[in-house]
């Protein structure tokens, strides 16, 4: 058995008690007429009440001054509203003197007072509108899911997330800014809220709220008591974010005349606004300008809240209690008297907990029945408005659960792209026409930013409090849903999605979204299978990209932050989408007309700009994916990148046609090497042209010495370093751009590359010798860094810089084990913690522990801003900042300490040495071509990388003498090589080439030569590292070959710093 109870003001018959002559009911009384009837909803106006039943019928009672009962006369008993005899009412809302009702066919009706256009009928009037009339502009397709009424205004929410408003705007309660008439007579869409996934709307006397699915609250309208919760008393003409409760996990909002109430996920209650009658429950009569938690309800899990004009109700079902506070003059608190209460009091009645414990062990706290003579009831729903209250209850034996306002009702919430929608799509047969329901759902969800932004939210309410750090999206759910759509047998599904995205969604996306929650779709949509097909680049993918590019700075920063937190596979998917577009456009046949050319140019521009944004995020986010994931391998085959580089240099990278050199991250190693050599050729050609001009002039002017078109160094093996310094000092900047040739004094050999390579090896061995003390060696990382305590002249560091530059320009890799920090500094990029981790892993580990420590940092670590370094066996204390010895490291300044430490190691302490090195490097590798490189790429140009392809090494090997590919010795040699471990193969590479790393162009650039040698199988293989030449005895036995080869490899040494 169900029952309805009511209490509060009854002077106009608004409680529906009929013959009672009482002006008020001070405690709950049963409304007998609805005993055993199932209630859909109850809504209260100022002096009237509407009651909708589950069977679709609508009843009204109370004052009929403005026709608000939907009939001719007032009524003290609930009477049927006859206008809905042919339709079933599912949704109702009452204003002070007007009503809105929505039927099961999604038709919207209004009646009652229309003095300010609150009925939305086209013009305001002072007539009594007793007959519910259909509201034009709303149909089954627009699907109204919620309505809220203020005193004289109306707010309507549709299933696509649109908010419509009409009525009085005297305090800004419509959220429409300045309206000349101060009202709207027809419902108008609140466009400033477009894109937000609205979960609930609410209206007070002259103020309004919208609450998103993730608990973000927007308020607007009258604020003279702080009822908007914004910390002041200024009215708001537009929706304004309530920042103070953004992270409070708000799930429901309701409003009184001048106060507001919030319900949180945990069951907490916040109130704010007018408090003069105690309606805020804070044990005071003060107004509150900011939401404040009701202290006396803490510890109780509230699941429902309701507000009357100047009072508040809260339900705690596990205790079977309703608490009330505020104005009590009409008995609306249900406490048995008419006193006001400024803190929660219990509403009297035969209520029992929603969950009843069987047996005698039930305590008073879990089951309390105030009236032992009455039958017990479980409270299902509470309602309030005006000065009256209602309660829908059921007998415990019906096992009806109390409604939980923190949970969304499926039929009254935003449409999202969920399993129900997709399963209906998948169920459509391959050749069938799409059912109207499927078409309508697809069109609504893919045309509405709100629907998409409300889709795929993290479960367990982890999406609540969305922010830059929490986008709230379940990417696995998104991928699963889109995969289901992709697999749908009927192709019309995809056609419908494409048409809707192209024609409706993309043109509607705003430049300045109203909130973070309005930009989730930028993360979600790329998972749609449509984005996997570059055929849609001009209609969907690139217009979508343009929307991202066009976003204002605030939204852009949030998108970048969210991108930086994506999983590698999700981030890579974004990159792949736009790389595919670039390749697709470049592979298109010749354009037929100018329009097609413009479309392609636009597509290329947008795709490259999105890739640039993604690359920037990736580069600043600790490499979410490897930097080479951005390479577009096909580019060098589809674009004349040398011409592109020349044009880029000449245009200085500004304006005009798209130049790929403005997006160097898409160039692979081969392309960048080609560009580097293009630049070298340009520089060398200028130098050579100048040489020839001078040589030609020398024919007529004997005083000008002819100049060599190569950079020639004459080196004595006994004084490699000094000879190099002396000769390089005489060269001008252009000389360094010339091809390097090295001649060893007293030797006949012509330098075809081998002598040059040997020169680099000899020079490095000498410079890296500890006797110079130029570099500090770090045992744990086996790397070197500048020694700030060296006595060497800066010219030595200048020489190393020149050496690195010459190695790059002459396509020679050298064994110089600097960390990547060096190359970052050369490219003017900041050095960070990861760089310290590469050079000094143990120190970095300690720093990370310092960052992660949660207790008292000062007590645990006992650090100050001082670093201790070894200075020729003596400890030297160096202050990282002025007066650092007297400044302790604390939790507040530990980031500053670590930044200062890193700055000292990589910058301040070695400034002199690095600047000399940098100057030498720029002598050779100056210019804009360096801007094209990533630090790791520049490092690979100097020292090579470890992208081994052992099959390629075997494939490109060449043989001399009687050796050939199928010679027995060669065959068993490669069999042995294939069976070697990776470590052994790397040692073989070091043994044969002088380095265990390979050029940036890959293994194909490591061409090795194998020639036979006499002496028999007892001899070891011999390597000529300058020429990548292996002298391999004519082994016939595989085991013998393995033994001798590994012996030779293991006994070899590189030219590193020891």
From TrEMBL:
User: Record's superkingdom?
Assistant: Eukaryota
A single Pfam family it belongs to is WD40_RLD
Q: Which GO terms describe its biological process?
A: protein ubiquitination; ubiquitin-dependent protein catabolic process
Give the RCC repeat ranges: 2-55, 56-105, 106-160, 161-214, 215-266, 267-318, 320-395
An example Gene Ontology molecular-function term: ubiquitin protein ligase activity
- Which residues are named in the active-site annotation? 1026
The subcellular localization recorded is: Cytoplasm
Q: What is this protein called?
A: Probable E3 ubiquitin-protein ligase HERC4 isoform X1
The organism that produces this protein has a lineage beginning with:
Eukaryota, Metazoa, Spiralia, Lophotrochozoa, Brachiopoda
């Amino acid at each position: 058995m169900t029952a309805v109870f009511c209490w509060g003001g009854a002077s106009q018959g608004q409680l529906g008690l009929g013959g009672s002559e009482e002006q008020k009911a001070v405690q709950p009384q049963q409304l007998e007429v609805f005993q055993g009837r199932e209630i859909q909803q109850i809504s209260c106006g100022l002096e009237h009440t509407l009651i909708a039943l589950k069977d679709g019928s609508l009843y009204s009672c109370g004052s009929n001054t403005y026709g608000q009962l939907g009939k001719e006369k007032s009524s003290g008993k609930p009477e049927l509203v006859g206008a809905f005899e042919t339709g079933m009412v599912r949704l109702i809302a009452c204003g002070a003197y007007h009503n809105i009702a929505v039927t099961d066919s999604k038709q919207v009706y209004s009646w009652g007072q229309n003095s300010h256009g609150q009925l939305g009928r086209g013009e305001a009037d002072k007539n009594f509108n007793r007959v519910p009339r259909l509201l034009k502009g709303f149909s089954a397709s627009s699907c109204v899911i919620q309505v809220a009424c203020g005193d004289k205004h109306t707010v309507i929410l549709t299933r696509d997330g649109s908010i419509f408003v009409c009525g009085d705007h005297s305090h800004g309660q419509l959220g429409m800014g300045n309206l000349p008439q101060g009202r709207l007579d027809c419902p108008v869409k609140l466009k400033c809220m477009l894109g937000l996934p609205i979960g609930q709307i609410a209206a007070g006397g002259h103020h309004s709220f919208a609450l998103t699915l993730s608990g973000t609250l927007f308020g607007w309208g009258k604020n003279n008591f702080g009822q908007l919760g914004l910390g002041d008393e200024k009215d708001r003409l537009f929706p304004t974010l309530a920042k103070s409760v953004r992270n409070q996990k708000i799930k429901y909002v309701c409003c009184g005349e001048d106060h507001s109430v919030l319900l949180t996920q945990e069951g907490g209650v916040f109130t704010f606004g007018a408090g003069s009658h105690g309606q805020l429950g804070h044990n005071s009569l003060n107004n509150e300008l900011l939401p404040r938690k009701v202290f006396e309800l803490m510890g109780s899990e509230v699941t429902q809240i309701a507000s009357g004009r100047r009072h508040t109700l809260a339900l705690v079902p596990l205790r079977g209690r309703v608490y009330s506070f505020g104005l009590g003059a009409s008995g609306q608190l249900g406490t048995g008297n008419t006193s006001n209460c400024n803190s929660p009091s219990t509403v009297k009645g035969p209520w029992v907990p929603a969950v009843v414990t069987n047996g005698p062990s039930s305590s008073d706290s879990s089951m309390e029945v105030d009236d032992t003579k009455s039958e017990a009831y479980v409270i299902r729903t509470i309602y309030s408005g005006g000065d009256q209250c209602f309660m829908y209850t059921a007998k415990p034996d019906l096992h009806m659960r109390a409604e939980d306002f923190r949970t969304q009702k499926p039929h009254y919430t935003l449409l999202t792209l969920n399993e129900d929608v997709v399963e209906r799509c998948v169920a459509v047969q391959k050749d069938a026409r799409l059912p109207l329901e499927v078409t309508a759902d697809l069109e609504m969800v893919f045309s509405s930013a709100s629907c998409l932004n409300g889709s795929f939210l993290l479960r367990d309410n982890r999406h609540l409090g969305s922010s830059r750090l929490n986008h709230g999206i379940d990417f696995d759910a998104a991928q699963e849903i889109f995969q289901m759509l992709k697999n749908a047998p009927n192709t019309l599904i995809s056609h419908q999605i494409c048409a809707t995205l192209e024609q409706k969604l993309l043109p509607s996306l705003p430049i300045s979204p109203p909130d973070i929650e309005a930009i989730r779709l930028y993360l979600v949509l790329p998972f749609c299978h449509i984005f996997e097909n570059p055929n849609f680049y001009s209609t969907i993918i690139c217009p979508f990209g343009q929307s991202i590019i066009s976003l204002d700075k605030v939204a852009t920063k949030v998108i970048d932050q969210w991108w930086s937190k994506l999983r590698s596979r999700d981030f890579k998917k974004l990159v792949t989408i736009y790389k595919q577009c670039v390749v697709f456009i470049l592979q298109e046949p010749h354009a037929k007309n100018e329009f097609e050319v413009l479309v392609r140019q636009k597509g290329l521009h947008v795709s490259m700009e999105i890739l640039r944004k993604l690359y920037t995020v990736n580069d600043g986010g600790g490499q979410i994916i490897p930097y080479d994931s951005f390479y577009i391998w096909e580019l060098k085959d589809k674009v004349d990148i040398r011409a592109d580089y020349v044009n880029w240099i000449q245009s200085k990278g500004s304006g005009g046609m798209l130049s790929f050199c403005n997006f160097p991250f898409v160039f692979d190693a081969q392309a960048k090497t080609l560009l580097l050599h293009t630049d070298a050729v340009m520089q060398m050609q200028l130098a050579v042209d100048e040489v020839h001009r001078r040589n030609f002039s020398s024919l007529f002017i004997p005083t000008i010495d002819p100049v060599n078109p190569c950079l020639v160094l004459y080196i004595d093996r006994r004084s490699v370093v000094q000879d190099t310094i002396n000769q390089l000092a005489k060269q001008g900047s252009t000389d360094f751009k010339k091809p390097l040739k090295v001649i060893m004094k007293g030797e006949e050999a012509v330098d075809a590359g081998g002598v040059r390579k040997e020169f680099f090896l000899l020079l490095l061995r000498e410079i890296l010798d500890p006797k110079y003390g130029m570099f500090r060696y770090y045992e744990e990382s086996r790397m070197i860094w500048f020694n700030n305590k060296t006595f060497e002249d800066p010219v030595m560091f200048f020489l190393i810089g020149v050496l690195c530059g010459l190695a790059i320009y002459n396509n020679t890799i050298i064994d110089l084990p600097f960390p990547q920090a060096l190359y970052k500094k050369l490219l003017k990029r900041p050095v960070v913690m990861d760089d310290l981790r590469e050079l000094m892993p143990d120190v970095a580990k300690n720093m990370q522990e310092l960052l992660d420590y949660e207790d008292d940092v000062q007590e645990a670590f006992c650090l100050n801003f001082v670093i201790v370094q070894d200075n020729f066996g003596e400890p030297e204390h160096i202050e990282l900042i002025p007066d650092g010895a007297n400044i302790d490291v604390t939790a507040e300044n530990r980031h500053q300490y670590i930044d200062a430490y890193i700055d000292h190691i990589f910058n301040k302490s070695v400034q002199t040495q690095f600047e000399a090195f940098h100057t030498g490097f720029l002598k050779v590798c100056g210019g804009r071509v360096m801007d094209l490189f990533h630090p790791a790429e520049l490092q690979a140009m100097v020292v090579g990388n470890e992208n081994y392809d052992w099959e390629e090494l075997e494939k490109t090997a060449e043989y001399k003498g009687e050796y050939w590919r199928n010679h027995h010795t060669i065959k068993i040699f490669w069999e042995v090589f294939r069976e070697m471990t990776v470590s052994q193969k790397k040692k073989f590479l070091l043994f044969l080439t002088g380095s265990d790393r390979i050029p940036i162009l890959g293994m194909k650039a490591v061409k090795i030569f194998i020639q036979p040698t006499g002496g028999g199988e007892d001899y070891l293989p011999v390597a000529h590292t300058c020429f990548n030449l292996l002298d391999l005895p004519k082994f016939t036995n595989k085991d013998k070959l393995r033994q001798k080869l590994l012996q030779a490899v293991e006994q070899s040494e590189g030219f590193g710093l020891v």
